[in-house]
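Closing statement on the zinc ion sub-project.
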Amino acid sequence: MKIARFDDGSGQSLGIVAGDRIRPIAQASDMIDLISRWEAIKVDIQAGASGTDGFALSDVRLLAPVPRPGKIFAIGLNYADHIAESKMETPKHQVWFTKAVTSIAGPFDPVQIPSVSPFVDYEVELVAVIGKGGRHISAADAADHIFGYCVGNDVTERVWQHRTAQWSLGKSFDTHAPIGPWITTADEVGDPHALGIRCFVNGESRQDSNTRHLVFDVFAQVEQLSQAMTLEPGDLIFTGTPGGIGAAMEPRRFLKAGDVVRCEVEGLGHIENPFVLEA
Ligand code: ZN
């Protein structure tokens, strides 16, 4: 199933996307509520997924599927070609940083180029959405704790990222975590480690890889994070970006106002965000 948040002009709702239509979901008040009660309500929701009522997708505005996750973690240096272009060594341990929950943006919303430092770059990523929470989740059990997946852009301000050893500030500017266009449930995704992943800037291909090239796979990431903390429904994990970032091009190419960045993951749809100067 594909589950979205949307605004039809009269307010925000959850909906099931099927083809070019979206049908409202009545069984949950918000996405984290839906994810938390999924086992109890999914049969009901699925039963309402077919039919022709609801809205044309083109008539609604899609919103960030999880507008206020409890936490957003993102892994660095997790594709071999990106490690090489970053002139780093393959890390022995998973390299984690957080993105502020206030950095979330919708799948087609404008993304801000910060007034304090404009060196903004894209990073297309597969994003895992935690379903059933837990602590000390083994990699073998991790699939049971993932509700679904969506596309994300781990937008990064490169100067703030690298002026200290800790990356979180440079990764946490407002609007720098656009996600969507909806959550595709894990059962529909199947193997998350066999998905094409691509990024385009103004139609020009910049990143083109496959999630099979992840250094630490999604399940190993869930295992590692949950050794430290309790994962909760709706928590987001950005699982790493492949090679092709603008900061590694020669000369370096950062995003400028008017650029449009499209990120897509096979089977999950795409997000597409115009970049604008912070007002
Ligand atoms: Zn990233």
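The chain has a mean pLDDT of 96. With this model delivered, the sub-project is considered complete and its resources will be redirected to Aim 3.
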